[in-house]
Design brief:
CATH superfamily of the largest domain in chain A: PurM-like C-terminal domain
Largest sheet of chain A: 6 strands, mixed
Strand content of chain A: 15-25%
Shape of chain A: globular
Strand order of the largest sheet of chain A: 10-12-7-13-11-14
Oligomer: homodimer
Largest interface: A-B, 85 and 85 residues
Number of helices of chain A: 10
Radius of gyration of chain A: 21 Å
Distance between the termini of chain A: 26 Å
């Protein structure tokens, strides 16, 4: 890598990549240019650090690249937005093998394509550890953003995607208990598979015919100058999806964010959360599948609260209910112990425990 | 920092910050929401690594925060866009003192305000070294992007901002020759001051009255559906600014990018580049001011090529000419040696030489 130099390496990474049409100007200039037909764009950023968020002896570079994009794309979709582009800043030691760089880039492009977008640009620098910083963009297609603050008393809590499988894979890797029997859990940890389509297909019929800053006339012919609606507070959409997030810190922690932001209580039904395949793995690992499901992060399932009168779309499973009050309970009882991932202090579920 | 925990620390960093109106939804949800009235947005990302791009014994946390934002804002402005928002991913060791975090955040907010924007969101993770990854956004206000590919034979090459001062400051720090006499150069290295206004004021009269995907009629009444123009290739704007970049890798290297992209040659006039104040510093440091000016990066001056018939706006100084051919020369001669900064291989002007 040292021999190739920064510019040649960037050329190598970008060689043969096809930008999606929303990327109007890709890598090679001072900045990229991305379409924002909605007149607004959703943006989120996540940093992944070697031996803290991933390990090269546990995951292939391709897997790590996919995971880095997936967790950012999940945040975009969790706002109700369609992924439009990514940018990536990558820090690497000078002696990083070229196949690691190539693998990271290939994985990123693979997952970006799965999310329907491409990588519009980036930065490449030298660092002691591999550091991957992804920023992801999305377009709301004229809809209101779906925040964590929109849950209403009486809503059904439902999930799309798997819970606890990434935590199971992590437990297997930590115990050095890899085997073919555990292939599914290991894959789930290495490459989360956020079910983007479960959200986006449900929303795709709900675009509001609105252009940014458009002038509209009311019934009396008076015109008003409209700004794009700024948050999801006002418009739950046709499908009754009032609040939405992705499960990145753990189900209890992420629903805790919804409960706090929405000023409601959430109760989960443990029976609805049971996963017999996960129970079998937990039994062999002498672990508790319920703990994985409730506190394991990184699966990037989507969890939302839905108005009671609306049918749940394909891919969504009811797991609880929103009521008046505060906090998150399971079968009516508070759950002791860990409530998920924090980067500093508190319970630490880092891949490598307490690194260095 | 460890005691406080991730979420409390993020609250602390964001406490009391005022978002600019273009940030429709700030920190606290899965993603932020930023206005893009143009229907497109410019995006760039840069990663800064401790002891490679900055040193805590050479710069204050405030200075480092300002520099991180400034170099990204400069890339946005170098496309002809108005900064609209930033997001920041920050990696820190668990034992990082709180005043370092606070200083970094304060510096970032200070420079974001200077660029006319705010910090819409971010991420905070643990890492071995401090790593700052900034992504910056800008709005083109209906204008075409000004790329590196638009230079035309006969254009005047002109610069806005200082050249070589950051390199002088680096040389002083490297030689451990700090003194009050060198305060200006030291400040220039610690906090680059890209002259955003020199570009943006010049452009502010040139907005094209165009809405994204608008339908327009030609003289015969035929309508066509227009996409936003995607690059700067088609529209130099009223002011005759055909190509633009910021000086981040060194003047020769950055003009080399323009020459290559535009398929032209560029010749610089060494007399126009002379800076007597820098000459005085160079004499005392037994160094070559011309080398600093031609190859020193990080000043984030703006350099552009202007149609010959147009007067240069305030703040711009002519330094050379575009002609047919290729490559960059000074007084008609090729310049031997270093052509600027590369992250891997080649000449390495890292703040700390070859780190670890």
């Amino acid at each position: 890598m040292r021999e190739l130099g920064e510019f040649a390496l960037i050329d190598r990474i970008n060689s043969g990549r096809l930008q999606t049409p929303g990327v109007l100007l890709g890598p090679g200039d001072d900045a990229a240019l991305v379409a924002a037909p909605d007149g607004r764009f959703v943006v989120t950023t996540d940093m992944l650090v070697q031996d803290r968020h991933f390990r090269l002896d546990w995951s292939s570079p391709q897997d790590i690249g996919r995971k880095a994009i997936a967790q950012n794309a999940a945040d975009v979709v969790a706002m109700g937005a369609v992924p439009s582009a990514f940018v990536v800043a990558l820090g690497c030691p000078a002696d990083t093998p070229l196949n690691v760089i190539d693998g990271l880039a290939d994985g990123m492009w693979t997952e970006a394509a799965r999310a329907g977008a491409s990588i519009a640009g980036g930065d490449l620098v030298r660092s002691r550890d591999i550091v991957i910083s992804v920023t992801a963009f999305g377009d709301l297609r004229g809809r209101a953003a779906i925040t964590r603050a929109g849950a209403r008393v009486g809503d059904t809590v439902a999930v799309a995607g798997r819970l606890g499988w990434s935590a199971a894979g992590l437990a297997i890797l930590t115990a050095d208990a890899e085997s073919d029997d555990f292939a599914e859990a290991l894959a789930a940890h290495r490459v989360p598979q956020p079910p983007y389509a479960a959200v986006l297909n449900a929303l795709s019929g709900t675009a509001v015919a609105e252009t940014p800053d458009s002038t509209v006339a009311d019934a009396d012919g008076n015109t008003t100058h409209q700004r794009p609606s700024s948050t999801g507070a006002s418009d739950p959409g046709d499908i009754g999806l009032n609040a939405l997030t992705d499960v990145s810190d753990g189900l209890l922690a992420d629903l805790g964010h919804i409960a706090t932001s929405s000023e409601v209580a959430i109760d989960l039904d443990s029976a609805a959360l049971r996963d017999k395949a996960l129970d079998r793995i937990a039994a062999r690992m002498d672990a508790d599948a319920t703990q994985w499901i409730l506190t394991g992060g990184e699966d990037h399932a989507f969890v939302g609260t839905w108005s009671a009168g609306y049918p749940l779309p394909a891919g969504w499973v009811p797991i609880g209910r929103v009521s008046a009050g505060h906090g998150v309970t399971v079968d009516g009882a508070a759950r002791p112990g860990s409530a998920g991932w924090e980067s500093f202090g508190g319970v630490d579920s880092a891949v490598a425990g307490e690194p260095r």
